[in-house]
Each structure stands twice: as C-alpha cells, then as structure tokens.
Amino acid sequence: MFRLILRRLAISVAVLWLVTLLVFVATLLLPGDPARAILGQQATPERIAALNDQLGLDAPVWQRYLDWLGGVVTGDLGTSAASQGPVTELLGGRIGASLVLLVGAAVISTVLGLALGTWSALRRGRAVDHTVSGLSLVVAALPEFVIGVALIVVLSTTVLPVLPSVTLAPPGEPVWSRPSQLVLPILALTLVVTPYITRMMRATMSEVLDSGYVEMARLKGLPERVVITRHAVPHAIGPVAQVIAIQLAWLAGGVVVVEFLFRYPGIGQALIDAVNNRDVEVVQAITLLIAAVYIVVNLIADIVGIMTNPKLRAEVAR
Amino acid sequence: MTAPATLTHTLAARDLRVDTVAGHPVLKGVSYEIAPGEVLALVGESGSGKTTAGLAALGHFRRGLVHTGGTVSLQSDDGEPVSVLEVGDRERRSLRGSTVAYIPQDPAASLNPALRIGRQIGEVLETHGYGTSAAERSARIAEVLAEVGLPDDESYQRRYPHELSGGQQQRVGIAMAFACRPSVVVLDEPTTGLDVTTQTLVLRTVAALTTEHDTAALYITHDLAVVATIAHRVAVLRHGEVVECGSAEEVLRAPSHAYTRELVTAVPHLDGTGATSTSAAERPESVTPESAGSNGAEPDGVGSNGASADTAEPDSAEADSADSNGTQPGDAAPAATGGDRARTPVLSVSGLSVSYGDHRVLHDVSLDVRAGECLMLLGESGSGKTTLSQCVAGLGEPHAGTVSLSGSPLATSTQRRTAEQLRSVQYVFQSPYSSLNPRKTIAQSVELPLRTLTDLDATARRARVAETLERVRLDPAFGDRLPDELSGGQRQRAAIARALVTTPEVLLCDEVTSALDVSVQATIVDLLCELRRELGTAMLFVTHNIALARHVADRIAVLRGGEVVESGTVDEVLGSPSHEYTRELLANTPRM
C-alpha cells in the first residue's frame, strides 16, 4: 500500500512542478509591463529600466524561472511589486482566513452531503428522495454568486437582517474573532458544493444497498444501523471521495468569487487585487497555492480510495 | 433438542403469495414444509420464483416484491412456533442468522469485500448474543471454520474474501450460516459457479452439518443431479406454483408432472442417455476407435444415415498435408483412425503458450479438430480454456506457437487476418445476455458478419439471414425483435445463427450452455449436434461440464493449469481415464 501511495505522491510532485512551469509562462504572457504598472504612465524610460533591473526582469527567462522556483521551494515567494513587501507576509494572514472558509465549507458539505445522500438512498422512490433530488438539482444549477446574492438578500438585508453581508476586518484582528461574519460565506460555499456530493452519494449508496453483501448483512439479522455503517457506507465512500475531492478542489477556486462578494480578506481578494495591480509575484504565488490545494485534495481522495479497498491495500503485500 | 416425534415441521410455508409492485404474480400460493434434519430441494428454472420462496422463510422480500398472502411458520428449538411474516422487525431480525440462516448463491458478491472473514462470522455471533464472552465467540468462529473444512487459525480468519478461492468463500458463507446453530438453513444454489470437485466438498459439508445439528434445510437449485445427491424430498416450482412434491426418489425416478419429466430428461448424463427431448442415444457400449470416430459425428443417433459427417464436410479435400504432429501430447487424434479419417485437421493448434507477466496461462498446448468433428475442451475456471479459444479466434493476447486453419497459419490478432479467415472461424460466447448488442435487432446482429466479411448484396444477405435463423430453429419473425424480447435460449440460438451465417469451417463454442437452464441447455446441445451433422462444421466445445461429453463430443482434451493433461476419444477418456485429475472429475460429477 505504501508503495502505491508513494507513487501517487511522486506523481503529485511532478504535476505540481508542471504547474509552476505553466504559471510562470502564463504570467510572462500577461499583457502589460510590471514596471510600468508600478511606476505609472508618466515614468521615464530610465526609471523603468532601473526598476526592471531591481526586479531582475532583465535576466533571461530560464534564469528568472529557476530563481523563482528556488524561492518557491525555500518558501520565499518573492516581493510584491505593489506593496514592496515580501509576498509571504502579504499572504500569511489571508491564507489563514481563506482556510477557515475552505475547511468550514468542506467539513459541513461533506458531512451534510454524505448524510443526505445516504438518507435519500435509503428512502429511494419516496417523497424524501424526490425532495432531496429535486432541491439538490435546483441548487446545483445556480452559480455561486447567485447563491451568495440570494443569501445576502434573505439573511442580511431585506428579509431577515440577522447576519453581516460584508466582512469587517480591522488590521491586526483575525476574521474569526467575529464568527457571525463567517456564516454567510461558508453557507454560500456549502450550498454550492453539497448538491454534487449528495447526488453522488445517493447514486453510489443505491448501488451498494442493492449488493449481495448488504442483503446478506440484513439476512444475518444485523441491526439496520450496523448494516448501514459497517457494510454499506464504507463501500460508497471510495467512489464518492473522488467527487468530494473534485468539489473541494473547486472550492479553492470558487473561494475567489465568494470572497469578492462578501469583501472577505482572503487569498481570493488578494488575487483579484494582484491581477488589477499587475502584481506578478503575488499572482504566481496564489495560483500555485490553489493548484497545490487541488493536487493535495486529489491525493487524499486517492489514498482514501486505496484505504477503503482491501484489494488495493493488499496489492503491495505481494 | 426437541425429539422429531413431537416436532413435525421446523419450517412450514403455507400458501405464499408474492407479487411484483406492478401487480404481476411471482408466487401463486406456494406451500412447503421441512422436518428437522431433512433437506427439501426446491427445484425450478430461472424466473420460477424459487429464490423468492426461499427468502420468504427469512421474512425477506427483494426490492420490487410485495408479500400479498400466506404465512411462514418457524419452529425453533425452544418450542413456540413463530410466524416469520407477522412478527415485528426487531423480532424478525433476531430470528435471522440465529434460528434461520441463509447461504447465498454467489459468495463472492455476498461476503463484504472490506471485512476480514473472521469478523464477518463473528458479527453474527455478537448480534445474536452467542455465548457469554468474546473468548467463547472466537472459539466458536474457529470451531465452525473447522466444521466446514477450512483452517481455523488466526491468520486465516484475518483474510479478506478476495484472498480466498470461490469454494473457500462459499464455505465461509456456510460457516457464517451455521455459526449460531440455526434450526433452518436456506441454501440458494450454493454450488452454482463452483467446479465439481468443490461442489462435492460443499455438498458433503452441508449434508454433514444438517445431519449433525438436526437442521432443516431448504436447498434451492436447478440442477437435478445435485438434488439426487443431497435432497430427501423435492418440490418442483414452475411459474410460481409447486407442480410436484414428493420424495427425491419418487420425483426423480417416476416424475408425475410433465414439466418434471422434461426437467429430468434434460439432465445430461455421463453415460450419454437423456439430455435430449428425443433421447435416443443408442451408443454401443464398447467401440473401436474407428467406429467411435464416425459414430461420434452423429450425436445421439437420431436415426439418420451413417454417412452424414463423412460426406458433409466442405473444404476438407483441399486441406493438404499440413504437419499434424501426431506425437504431440495435445494432439488428441488416435493414431489408428483408419484410412478415411486420417485427414488433415481443419483447425490445428500447436505449441501454443500464453503468459500474463509471470503468470503462465497456457503452456505448449497442441490440438487438432477435423471437419465435422467436435472436440470437447474440458477444464475448470482458470484452466486457460477460454484463453485458448480466444487465441484461436484471434481475440486473445499475443501468443507463442501456431494456430492454423486447413494448413495455413493464422495471425494472432483478428486485425491481421483476412476476411476469408475471419469468415472461417466463428465464435459463440458464453452469455447470450451480453454478447448480443441490445440496440440492434436479431436480424441486424446476424447480418453483421455477412456485411463485413462477404460481398453479398443486401437481398442475398437477407435471404441468408432468414435461412440461418430457420436453421437454428428460430422463427425468422424473431429477426425484427431486440434481444431483450427473447428468452435466454432464444438469444443463444440467435448468437449461434450469427456465428453460422458465414458458414464457418470452425465453430468455437465457449461455455455456450453454462448461462442457461438445464432444459434449455439440452435443446442448445441438440441443436449444435444437428447443425454439425448438417453443415459438417468442426467444433471446439469449451466447457467445464464433463457430463455433456457424450452428448456433444467425439474427442476430449482435458486442460488443467494451462496444459493438456489428457486427450482421446470420449470413450477412452470417460471409460479409462489416465490422468488423476480426470478420474477426480468423473468421481465428483453428481449422477442421478
């Protein structure tokens, strides 16, 4: 099993390296000149040349890539052109803030999705099943900003003004010191992701519930709770983990829109600001970060898949 | 234990009625009762409702089925009869696994693949509060594993189902059922899919356990030969009704209902009688190799002339002096077959070897099939018999050795064979349920090989399709239907028609009857024999069922572990088997 996981890990590292290459090339192709963006339209050619020199933009492309890659590996993400401070410092607090959103939404939607999917599969063909299926389809069809706006209308402004719609983050104070302002962003992300997990879990569970071993477990006289938790759910988890992973990976990107909507001081906001400011180093760092989340989450899903499948587990024992 | 004198029935079902949700009846008033220590066989074909009737004993109805009437009463060791269908969920659960246990048809699907087998047996004991301590329960796990003839040590209990063979998995299923010493066990075709040697072992285990613990057993099966081995009484189920019920001896020897008679005659016999509706099979007791050769070409001697096979072969004249390697171990041709039989084979395989990585599937296999002759390739699952037939057909992996057709070697893959070669070698697959495209009508499927391999025009193709459908005794009107609208037997006929429509020289039949009911198997076997006689096609009949030998084959090659361990004429192999494995197979094949 460990060899299998190590192989997956090696593949992940290779993919991550490919991503650094892509990110670097993509930022090269971005229109606009960072030095001019920083200095403004009135800058003299001498000053631009001086700044290019200072930023190392004169060096050949491959050398700039290697320098940057070396920095990434050692944890130095470069200097933000806009704020003139190190990128790591700029992003430090924001990563934490975004992680709160991501983890909160991930945990809630996974638990909720698995529970709703299982419940729905157990009540196949009944009213509960139709309601869950119908609702999840409707919600899945809505883009995240529509959900966000709808939440603001319902819970913050017009109908029930109980929750803040905009995040207030005085400098130096972490966002989670005011928990009420986390509710709407997390809820929005949860609503986007849960329907997919629910539908996938329902489909997989239905199949598992029809399997011979679940019937056998019932015919052995096991209590229904044991049948579901011991004999059914573990087999449904493997395939569903892949879907959860894709959804969580999507969260890492989806967070950009939701953070923008709620003025939430996370990496999504930072990315939008950085793109506006031609702040290349920050854009690179955040893109890489989001890519890393994708890869890590998928890796975890693969490992869960391997762990829940004794055949794959045993593969290495040979 | 209650004495049998005071306790007449452990399990009694009265007038069971079950419908589908749509209102179609599945069981129309089925009654049966079983005394302690007795084995009642519930016999019927697929769709007769026998599994439904068996599961009703546990108060379980599969999705889409509704219980509409009748009762099941269960008398456990401690007295009071319980009405399984009327008690509450909780009480029914407490009966399942402890008083009445179920042994499923497919152990591979019924054992949880993610749980260790010891755990799966243990959870039955835990749920039903067997014993007083964990130590007592784990002692019982070891004990019951030993009872079914499996190792009882800790490391064996820690295995996962996929680490066991099919027979071992089924014995784990039996151990699980017997763990709590139930009063009743329901066995749902527990040996279907197992090879005969394992089947014998499983049957013995079941017989020993039921006798020892005075357990009442409901044995669901479609195999009458198995019934003869294990059952005391038999109930024959057809379309949801019990048409005949009586002692095993009575029902099998002197069936009173026409349907039962049909079932009984359909069972293939090692000695060659039965298995056909006409059931003539006047084969001489001892035959010389020469007469065996020509006689074998007329299956079951349906009174036609003796010249059939010898005159009806196409293309054999031009098949010239290819080296037939008469001394190869796999070459089943008897040396002294007489002048007119010493032709070159239509199909010749020599030195065929296939490996998947380190795993050797076939090793140096050689065999020959002559025009109009049927060679039975006998082997258990994993013996490499399907791989061999796929290599012949060009569907297999790259292989070493040669396959030649009328003396000219064939490429390993169908892509590199000529249309003429493809036309000459045709394949009938095991499952007619998956080998026919569900979106194409039967006529379209049958026409396809003509379209791709011949240059006949549309009218000629249509005529040929109709002619071939008639030849396989399928009304040409079926041509417009989709496979879904046909029964299993009809589908297999259509699949045979598809193979024969190009008038191949060689027909490969890969377990063509094993997905079919026994009575349908008999008709398909009859059909193949007749077609072989009419068309003079050489046949390679791949099967695991040695009982079919006299019904289809002239010669047998026994494949084991990828090697031909024995070959010869049917009479030689069945009469005086030389290899230990063949003897074992013959000894373990149940007879009626």
TrEMBL record, chain A:
The keyword Transmembrane applies. It is a multi-pass membrane protein. The chain crosses the membrane at residues 9-30, 95-122, 134-160, 180-198, 240-262, 282-304. It holds the Pfam family BPD_transp_1_N. InterPro entries: BPD_transp_1_N, MetI-like, MetI-like_sf. Keywords: Cell membrane, Membrane, Transmembrane, Transmembrane helix, Transport. It comes from the Bacteria. Residues 95-301 form the ABC transmembrane type-1 domain. Its main location: membrane. The keyword Transport applies. SUPFAM superfamilies: MetI-like. It is found in: Cell membrane. Belongs to the binding-protein-dependent transport system permease family. This is ABC transporter permease. It comes from Prauserella salsuginis.
UniProtKB/TrEMBL annotation, chain B:
CDD domains: ABC_NikE_OppD_transporters (cd03257). The keyword ATP-binding applies. Residues 312-321 have a biased composition (Acidic residues). The keyword Transport applies. It holds the Pfam family ABC_tran. Keywords: ATP-binding, Nucleotide-binding, Transport. It comes from the Bacteria. Residues 270-343 are annotated as: Disordered. Residues 329-343 have a biased composition (Low complexity). One of its GO terms (molecular function) is ATP binding. Residues 11-264, 347-586 form the ABC transporter domain. Belongs to the ABC transporter superfamily. This is Dipeptide ABC transporter ATP-binding protein. It comes from Prauserella salsuginis. The lineage of its organism: Bacteria, Bacillati, Actinomycetota, Actinomycetes, Pseudonocardiales.
